[in-house]
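Let us practice reading a record.
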Amino acid sequence: MKKVEIEWGGKTLTLETGRVARQADGAVLATYGETVVLCAVTAAKSVKEGQDFFPLTVHYQEKFSAAGRIPGGFFKRERGATEKETLTSRLIDRPVRPLFPEGFYNEINVIAQVLSYDGETESDILAMIAASAALTISGVPFMGPIAAARIGYQDGEYQLNPSMDQVKEGQLDLVVAGTHDAVMMVESEAKELSEEIMLGAVMFAHRECQKVIAAIIKLAEKAAKDPWDMAEQADLTAAKKKLKDLIGKDIAAAYKLTDKSQRSSALNEARAKAKAAFADATPQDQMAAQKLMKKLEAEIVRTAILKDGQRIDGRTTTQIRPIDAMVGFLPRTHGSALFTRGETQSICTTTLGTKDSEQMIDGLTGLSYERFMLHYNFPPYSVGEVGRFGAPGRREVGHGKLAWRALKGVLPSHEDFPYTIRVLSDITESNGSSSMATVCGGSLSMMDAGVPLKRPVSGIAMGLILEGKDFAVISDILGDEDHLGDMDFKVAGTSEGITTMQMDIKIAGITEEIMKVALAQAREGRAHILGEMAKALDHTREELSAHAPRIETMQIPKDKIRDIIGTGGKIIREIVATTGAKVDIDDEGTVKISSSDLTQIEAARKWIAGIVEEPEVGKIYEGKVVNIVDFGAFVNFMGGKDGLVHVSEMKNERVEKPTDVVSEGQEVKVKVLEIDPRGKVRLSMRVVDQETGEELEDTRPPREDRGPRGEGRGGDRGDRGGRDRGPRRDGEGRGGDRGGRGGGDRDRGPRREGGDRDRGPRGEGGDRAPRSEGGDRPRREDRPERNNDDGPAPDFAPAFLTRNDD
């Protein structure tokens, strides 16, 4: 076993080989912190017959066991690649592919697996380093090594390999890969940073990568296998001259046609002419002739740009293709835009949803939810071809994520705009830079949908032609300029700064000078595109689409959450079923009510407010009669609050039966008279105008003062007396004022005239035995014996068996 260790970014980076996966051509176990990634490289020893391209395949896989988790779903095992795994596979592939020699067509598999994850160190950077080290020691003709680093930016300082929390809090998440001498790949997400800060981050990352490259070289010196013997390339000078003489002028003429379809037809005719000329050659020579044809096309295009500044479609190196943008393109969508730049066109739509529509992501960090989604589709008809149409491939996933990064930084906060947002981009025409068309169209469609973006976002793709020390940076590249050039450099941002930057290099890297020129030229191009977009829509619409759901947010105390949900979700289901609105509650007490009908939202809001609010004495409420008893009616007046309207509070005149005035389900207006310490609410209808809801003057004379309790309590004790207090009925309680306690009391024995129960001898006037001075009753031994059926309580009876009139 061979091992190399370095201190890097405050942690120890360990690269070892010789212990695991020893049958692979190259295998490296990389450890950083407590995150461990195994990368194994295998290469076919021969080329398949007829192979004319380099079949490099990169697979990155996250094992749930690495984080101590079991996968979800029915099968409970890792299956198809997730979006993150697909993106990380592309992240490894992009800087590695250009470093294999031309003409090397052996199939290579690079498989990186996350075996341990500490929740702090992102595994994608470690996987790129492990892949580079495994390729370097495998013996395959890899012109590396490369290294990668993640850079954050906060408080004016660059951070090397920041933690996930630091990335969220910071302004930048940038990944850079490069060789010792040059940068190969850039992928980033930023919060409107300047070109100077972005370039500084790239250069900072490249310097840090050089330390890791030195460690990989040290490991290779200890454990590298013998390099493969490469077959000498055949001398094709004569064949190239023959092709140039035969079709050179045809190719040059074809590339002067500005229409893509006409240019493609002319090039196909030239290729057919070349194929006929080599019809009698061997299959190997025919395949070589096809490669030479592409080289000849590249030479003609690149020379015209470098020497004459003349591009395929006649533009200068800084000129942008004509732009046409319109919004409100589709009538029933929440927001839509048609963005056309030259022969590249995208239909972008924005859909607004509720919390239920958030995307659930199951990964090493556990379950998480994403409220902003952007999906990119590239059907074959967009380039006039016949091909596969179905599930998105790796390219579509990658392009969609790039546009997602460009737009995410300008979205409003979840508190300000509590919607789930999905942007869909369908590419209907493509001739270069379709991902940047998605950025422009997506920005317009969200503004059309009423999403309050901080600022509009535009994007542009830059290209590079590099021959020796001469170079030309070109703006808004075509598809052919992308294929025949040396760089695809995409930059998106607002008028204030960059929100994303992606660069892929097809040569051995580019210098800081080239990047500086490209960024400055891209800034001018973005500003021009923003001006063209503003002609279609220069501000966010103030009103949402009539077809979009409305969401109203309210905050409730945490201790009231269970009251709204109810036992087993009974209350919240009733609210949803009755009002038609959708209700979501989080653990912090934030309630989101959504519906396309504002009346439904208002009904649900009032219901919830009634549950969490406390009734105020003297305030008038609207309510519904939910139960009628002999002594009054129970009214639900605040969602989950019930109160008692005693029969004496229904009208100023005498009411014989509550049913003479109200019926179950009737809407009434009530005033809160009293709330007792137990929370029981006493209501009145008679002091409220049932038509207007206005409070009426109480014309009922006040009750006669009956004097202290010790004097003359016989006879009528308010409204308690005079009724038969039979057994309590099911569902009836003691609620309401003390004058309406009937209907819920137990049978307390026979009453004497005046309504009092027979409780033994009383004093004069029907009262109980007189109290001693100060209102206290006589001592127990001085009291007369009770008139109970069972006779007086025995002297030895415990206290709880004797009746306590207090």
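A brief commentary: The chain is about 25% helix and 25% strand.
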